[in-house]
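Entry 14. Structure prediction run on the chain below.
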Amino acid sequence: MNKIINYTFIIIFTVVSCRNEKTKSEVSQENKPKNILFIAVDDLRPELNFYGANHIKSPNLDKLAGESLVFNRAYCNVPVCGASRASLMTGARPTRHRFLDAKTQKDKDFKEAVSLPMLLKQNGYATISNGKIYHHKTDDKNAWDEMWQADALWSYALPESQEIRSKTKRGLPFEVAEVHDSVYRDGKLALKVIKDLQKLKENKQPFFLTMGLMKPHLPFTAPKKYWDLYDRASIELPESYVQPESTPKQAFHKYGELRNYENIPKKDHLPEDLAKELIHGYYACVSYIDAQIGLVLDELRRLELDDDTIVILWGDHGWNLGDHKLWCKHVTFETALRTPLVIKVPGKTSGQHTEAITEYIDIYPSLAELIGLDIPETVDGKSFVPLIEGQSQEKDWAVSKFKDAVTLIKGDLFYTEWIKDDGIAYAKMLFDHKTDPLELDNLAEKPEYQEQVQVLAKALREKWGKNFLDK
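Output returned:
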């Protein structure tokens, strides 16, 4: 039987795992494995104070980061929620035919994989899924002792907004309402997680408790007090608000997810005033979910569980706020691939930052190692525990994909190929972040970079996974 490290784990949009060969009835109070609080945030960019920004007000996330190891270069493996979450929760790479889009379900794409919550459940943990963990609320249902979602009133608080939603596909893209936090879905979620903490505090069984926040996903709906934190006149469009001719046309999209909302032009780029209003709404939603996370972390401390708990927070992918004149995700620019990831391990982390390149499939094996569990063979990721221990790691790359686009991230280089089933590239894109952090100068077709492109193309195929092209 593996030795269990005596920590409690809390995860914010990140996953933890633990293995103990004892059955639930055999787990003793004195020798029990420790707890996990798993917090996931939908569409959260790393545009936060602890990543160098200074305009979004998120004091609770800032405090958590000050107690954690902060990953400056964490990347999702698929920039779309359903596929990203299924990949993260199984620790398995996406392939050309697995983990494709928002409709992805773990139970359909990789049914035989032992997911992170299933591993924990098999090893004596109470497992509770609250809010949006997988994209589909019943996915991987056998891994959970309980699955909970807020009621249907989660997008809009105002009757007039609800009426518009009832008559249209998705309703308005934002709402400013003078209501209590708990009117919206994430406010209800915080209260449920707090109640679970209080209940689980009294149990002898270790727990894996999740908090899956919906915001800042569209529509940008949050109580008015969070909108009031920002002055729209001071909001600026991103410096990369341009689509250079050197960038392949395949790299861009028409941000159909946003265009499904009312009052959004059905074609062409957005008017600047509307663009700034959307950015304002995104900021308000981040401050709103920050407050909900703060309530949960405060309760964790009040219950004196924090010293026994690992806290990990992650966003399922990045999000474009006008970067490259794009909105939403669904691309392989860094703005859609780079994500916030922090992990608090009591006694080991205290606000350190790491520049090590980390993939989301690395979360599962890292948590398993931290609590002494064997890692299933279906897991492709590599543990980043050495980084928590203050050491270096050999792995210095990541691979992400969306539809035909596959990206290798290695050092300062971001290399993307668009391929079909034969694996042959029909478009290429290369950025050097050392000289071009905004990804505006595509080097892939320049004669002087062809030797480097060949090296990167070979490395991409070596690292995208042995079964990448299999059907």
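Residues 1-32 have pLDDT under 50 and may be disordered.
Filed with the rest of this week's runs.
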